[in-house]
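Workshop exercise sheet. Pairs work together: one partner reads the sequence aloud, the other fills in the structure field after running the prediction. Swap roles for the next sheet.
Pair: D.N. / O.F.
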Amino acid sequence: MRTLLLYDGKMSSAERIAYKLCYLIGNTYVTDITEAPKDLSGYDSFCLVFNFYGTLTAGRTKNFLADHKEELKGKKIALVGIGFSDLGFARYSVDMQAIVGTGDIEPVFVADERQAVRAGFEIAKSLHVVKGKLEQKDLEARIEAYIADHNTLALATASEGFVRCTPLEYMYRDNCFYIITEGGKKFRGIFDNGNVSMAIFDSYSDMDSVKGLQIYGSAAVVAIDSDEYLEIMAAKGMKREQLAKLPVTMFVIKIKPLQFELTDASLKSEGFDTHQMMNTEFQIENWKAGAAFAKNEEKRLEDLQKAAREISDPEKDEEIEEEVSVEEPAEPAVFRIDDYDEEEEEKPGLLSGKRNRRKAEEKDEDGFDFGDDDENEDTDETPEEEEIAEEESFEEFEDDEEDGDTIATFRFEDGKVTKRHAFRPFGEEPESVEEEAEAEAEAEA
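Structure field:
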């Protein structure tokens, strides 16, 4: 499989990301789109990288697709757009598809070089399509024979900031790899991660002799003295009595292979692709388990949404209210300030809203000294009324009740505030200022 990787724009982010992608895709030829080879027949797939700023960008990429649409028919094509926003990129990809006519185009949008690395991994998988594929049984037989002909592999383990590759002897039983070891740093990756990669390979002499097997799998530690542990040790010629006499404890690693990738240069002479891939029964089981989990999770979310709709259904709420009757507690009395209008005639002995605001502005930091009314106010009150107001300043609060009003008065004297409540039935005239003062004096006495 060969891939032609073209970037639109020299010395640009498209060129930098194109070279990032070529490392991941592999077996590629990278160049500027203006210098693309005239003969494209030697390439099985194409990857076009360009800066995307809207539907009017990447004109040279569009021209390339239009000029070579006959050669690109039926070929795998990856379109990689680079920019700050992917708004309009999907529509742009559809236009590209229309230019080619019949082609398998995969649009990929990346915002920076870090995303390009992840995108390159996915692009590589989509572009690498095996043409001359072996039958499943034939491929499985070749892989098992290759494993049986060897006994040593390179085991790669990793965790955050840590990678380890260790050459180890292996046993292959019941479609699993078993490794006996005295321990080591490789266990850090196994405990932290569990995902491992292995390689079995022949010595290299030339390109026609290239042959090797890459394995992706899941590793776990076999419990010491378990039946499986003792069985593996016995297969290696070590019985329980012998294990007890060893100066160190031996451990067993079990690896379930999930995917095999066989590279065999000799397959080309047989008319097959030199690179073959096979998913194992363990991988298929994982996929089935994942699909079942996704299905159960989808059903769980549907049940939750259904329950939420039933709770918020007004008709259901009415039914609940009919079935359960809860006596609501009486609301407590709430006092509110009687808001006097500025144009309202001022009542004797009461501070109007306008006058009250003026006195609040004249409040002294040391107390409730409202200053000299004669100098700061223009009022129609008589001196006697002003004297009474100065002595018995208060604000009125009232609360609506069925049989009367509750009156709250505040007295300001010597910088102190006192509060008194009184109840007045509806229809009864309020006490005069003089009567109010007398009632308060009696209450204080």
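Discussion prompt: The chain has 15 helices and 17 strands. What would you look at next?
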